[in-house]
């Protein structure tokens, strides 16, 4: 297990394989130790991203434990949870959900509502609702989980701190940044106090805190946190540990947001190279780093280098995860967008149409990923001059974003800005103006006056005043 904990998965794998083979040979296939060994082997395949190999092993563990111990034994329910986690990683959320629901129900029935295993199961159920975009259903579960963990284990227990971090990150997904921030600051402070500055969970909370600063446009505050996180991960876990690689990826992203593309690029290149070496080319995180590398090439205008990477990423994700996995759909969307940027609109259109159709089918119409796909599809219609097709899509995107994520979420603000710009293109300046004023006001409130998106909305507001024959001076309009 030590190689696994150190992230040295390729070294751990042959040991787990050997252990399972010997346990089976000596004790038989159904002995508890053999099943424990098989479970560990399935989880190392999961860590390596070899999900198609992990799935049948964890299914087998669940089936045999159910047969030997009964459906309601804690080990059986834990196996059910592990089995569900693979479906979750594969993006098969509709199959994972009933397993998580069953696991939570059985733990509650067997151990009671306040048992730590029940609360961990409740947390997993909330996470699958979050993955499905059913944020309003996830929220009360996270809130309940945190309240009960605090009551049962105390405010400073690691499980309580993990629950607090998850609750904060859901607030982040809902765009409720002002509520997420103090929770993440508290989580990081308590983790430092209880576990020490260099504990992996403390570093996770440090990363989460940096992300919320990044969302708020407080990039100068996010940067030193991400630099510190990467330095400590490297020191504690080593340069090639998956958590270190995730930290490296996040550090690259802040440099990208700061426009320091020449600093971001070698970090993305390193993250992809090391992920490929440690986890393999077809592992989900490796494919994420490939996608991010392609996107930085795109930002640098090196479209001819970005395109083959995006094409490769889409092909490998489709092969590994299936056509309908959310990560595959993200790759499809990014591929469509680079075709759009290259002016290959006729190639971009069917990809973006397919991406939206599949996102709607898999995640539902109101999931944030589906809303991004909807917005991008509207953008291609706009570029093709089909403004009448683009308009109802942008109106729908704004309406659903506001309903699901709230008025102040970044996706809602983007939809609002895009809708206003389209009204302007259609000559409906009287409709565009109040939307642009609202977009600027809310962006300033949520992200701050100096955030790049706030400055974009200010620019768009100035342009419409110009089109209306006015001059914007000092925030006042003079006719």
Topology:
Blueprint: H1 2-5, H2 9-27, H3 32-47, H4 51-69, H5 74-89, H6 93-111, H7 116-131, H8 135-153, H9 158-173, H10 177-195, H11 200-215, H12 219-237, H13 242-257, H14 261-279, H15 284-299, H16 303-321, H17 326-341, H18 345-363, H19 368-383, H20 387-405, H21 410-425, H22 429-447, H23 452-467, E1 471-473, E2 476-478
Antiparallel strand pairs: 1-2
Helix pairs in contact: 2-3, 3-4, 4-5, 5-6, 6-7, 7-8, 7-9, 8-9, 9-10, 9-11, 10-11, 11-12, 11-13, 12-13, 13-14, 13-15, 14-15, 15-16, 15-17, 16-17, 17-18, 17-19, 18-19, 19-20, 19-21, 20-21, 21-22, 22-23
Describe it for me?
It is a single chain. This protein has 23 helices and 2 strands. By secondary structure, it is an all-alpha fold. Helix 14 runs antiparallel to helix 15, helix 19 packs antiparallel against helix 20 (about 385-405) and helix 21 runs antiparallel to helix 22 (about 430-445). The radius of gyration is 24 Å and the shape is globular.
Descriptive labels:
479 residues, mainly alpha, two-stranded antiparallel ribbon, 2 strands, 81% helix, globular, disordered C terminus
**Spatial gap, N to C terminus:** 72 Å
Q: Into which percentage range does the β-strand content fall?
A: under 5%
Strand arrangement within the widest β-sheet reads: 1-2
Helicity range: over 70%
Gyration radius, to the nearest Å?
A: 24 Å
| Unreliable spans | 471-479
Mean pLDDT: 89
Order of helices and strands: HHHHHHHHHHHHHHHHHHHHHHHEE
Could you tell me the number of beta strands?
Answer: 2
Classify the secondary structure makeup into a structural class: mainly alpha
How many DSSP H or I helices? 23
Biggest sheet character: 2 strands, antiparallel
Indicate the overall shape. globular
